[in-house]
Design brief:
By secondary structure, this protein is of the alpha/beta class. The protein contains 14 helices and 24 strands. The chain has two domains: 265 residues, 3-Layer(aba) Sandwich (Aminopeptidase); 194 residues, Glucose Oxidase, domain 1 (3-Layer(bba) Sandwich).
């Protein structure tokens, strides 16, 4: 009897050791895959994986070869893994400049990327170049009917360039306009340019506030950046674009040198609705545009489900594989952003293909163009037949840095409260992350819910969950490299999200949807 009991204890102990070793081996296997995959994707050879670049093409070939190796089926164009689409890539020619005419003297020309910066967010029509214009100061350049605020009240800007202060008006450091208006006009200069254009203005010049001054080095680097547009966006928006120029302190001082209000005066302005005035100086936009047609590609792989009755209910999981490329010969490797998300999705695909436990089909999507305005996800959600059959989208964007035991979860309960509950349930029985919902706050000033690929799925009414590490130190810097990656955190994410997908895949119903994304 004692011998039997001892034997049973030994057997159970041995079994637990074997199970622990198997689990450890499994994690070690994932560790090896994610590390080797990331070391390639974030290597200098891929040149920062900028959309449509040679490096991005190499990355797409690598990802597709890995999917094929794992047994994941192609689900792109014509039996391939690729969903190709055209993009119009535009930039300002290097010699582009901004001329200021003070009185009758010759102009002071400021080179793009030095003391001024042409905004590539909305490339202007060439008709505005090489012409001398009058310029009028219009305060903050904002209109809000609800707030009874109109910077253009009683002024005529037809055929003139408008000079505005960056940002929104404040009193004692407190915003005075509604949150919606503040977000609209702080998000980018495009809203101010559209308003100015609607009033008949032919250009917008923006005076620097403390943020522009602080980040001028970064802003000036953007002078060589390219604008990436889908063909549909060109048709809808580009015709109306006017030039947008950001000034730094030097060019702002030059422009306002002999005016009734100097730049130093306007910097100290406390009036939330400053009086407009016409400048004695004139300006000229001198620019040329370089325009190319290029092909970008998303990557799509499919793992079929075990239950044929559920074959038209797709789970989708995605990560953007593009990054920001190179600058002055320096590679921006993008190890965390978003090499970490890319290898996470790859490893989940490998494991699910190996285990074959999913009842519903799962699509593994690697978006391009996220760094260019979520272009790949926008194209995919508007041009893929399966979108109408998608029941969930999980977005993995930056998950390899910060605390190993925590991750930000964004939007999981916004469209489907059931998805939010499942995220909590699965996490509690797998990786046990501390899930931080800070960015679900509707007053989140960074509006992160709207700033990654999942938003285009959410706009189609598809429940989403977005996982993110909020790494800031090396964000969009050449220092975002592989030696700073916490690979065990990625392995934990793989375990967590794989279990979440299998849970959703094998439910006896589709996720409930309470409300649509706004």
């Amino acid at each position: 009897m004692n011998l039997l009991r001892i034997s049973s204890i030994v057997f159970l102990f041995s079994s637990s050791i074997l199970l622990s070793q198997a689990a450890l081996s499994y994690k070690n296997s994932s560790y090896t895959y994610v590390k080797s995959n990331l070391e390639f994707l974030a290597s200098d050879e891929l040149e920062g994986r900028e959309t449509t670049s040679r490096g991005a093409k190499l990355a797409s070939l690598f990802i597709s070869e890995e999917l094929e190796k794992y047994g994941v089926l192609p689900y792109g164009d014509s039996g391939t893994y690729f969903q190709n689409f055209d993009m119009i890539v535009s930039s300002f020619a290097p010699e582009s400049n901004f001329a200021i005419y003070n009185g009758e003297k010759d102009s002071n020309n400021f080179l793009n990327g030095a003391e001024i910066n042409y905004s590539a967010r909305s490339l202007p029509s060439k008709e505005y170049s090489n012409k001398k214009y009058e310029i009028i100061f219009a305060g903050y350049g904002i209109f809000s009917e609800d707030d009874n605020y109109d910077s253009y009240e009683n002024i005529d800007v037809q055929g003139k360039v408008v000079l505005v202060i960056n940002g929104t008006p404040k009193v004692n450091d407190e915003e005075i306009l509604s949150e919606e208006i503040v977000q609209k006009y702080n998000r980018s200069t495009s809203a101010k340019a559209e308003l100015a254009s609607s009033k008949g203005a032919v250009g917008l010049v923006v005076l620097p506030d403390s943020n522009i001054i602080k980040y001028w080095q970064f802003i000036s680097r953007m002078s060589t950046s390219k604008s990436f547009k889908l063909e549909e966006e060109i048709e809808k928006t580009e015709i109306k674009s006017i030039p947008i120029v950001l000034l730094n302190e030097k060019s702002a001082n030059e422009l306002l040198l002999n005016e009734e209000s100097t730049f130093d005066t306007l910097k100290e302005l406390t009036d939330p609705k400053p009086e407009p005035f016409e400048l004695t100086s004139k300006i000229k936009f001198n620019f040329d545009l370089l325009i190319e047609n290029k092909v970008a590609r998303n990557i799509i792989g499919l793992i079929k489900g075990n239950n044929k009755k559920l074959s038209d209910e797709y789970l989708t999981i995605g990560a953007h594989y593009d990054h920001v490329g190179m600058n002055n010969g320096q590679v921006y490797n993008g190890a965390d952003d978003n090499g970490s998300g890319t290898v996470t999705v790859l490893e989940i695909a490998r494991k699910i293909a190996l285990e074959k436990q999913n009842d519903r089909p799962i699509l593994f999507i690697f978006h391009t163009g996220e760094e260019k305005g979520l272009k790949g996800a926008k194209y995919l959600t508007n041009n893929s037949n399966f979108i109408d059959s998608a029941i969930v989208h999980i977005n993995i964007d930056m998950v390899g840095r910060e605390s190993e035991d925590s991750i930000y979860c964004i939007g999981a309960s916004k469209i489907s409260k059931e998805l939010g509950h499942l995220v909590e349930e699965v996490n509690s029985t797998s990786s046990k992350f501390v899930l931080d919902y800070k960015f679900d706050d509707p007053d989140d000033p960074q509006r992160l819910y709207y700033r990654s690929d999942h938003i285009h799925y959410a706009n189609k009414g598809i429940p989403i969950a977005f996982f993110y590490d909020y790494m800031q130190k090396d964000y969009h810097k050449s220092s975002d490299t592989t030696e700073k990656i916490n690979y065990m955190k990625i392995v934990k994410m793989v375990e967590f999200i794989e279990n979440l997908l299998i849970k959703i895949s094998n439910m006896d119903h589709k996720l409930s949807v309470e409300k649509q994304s706004l």
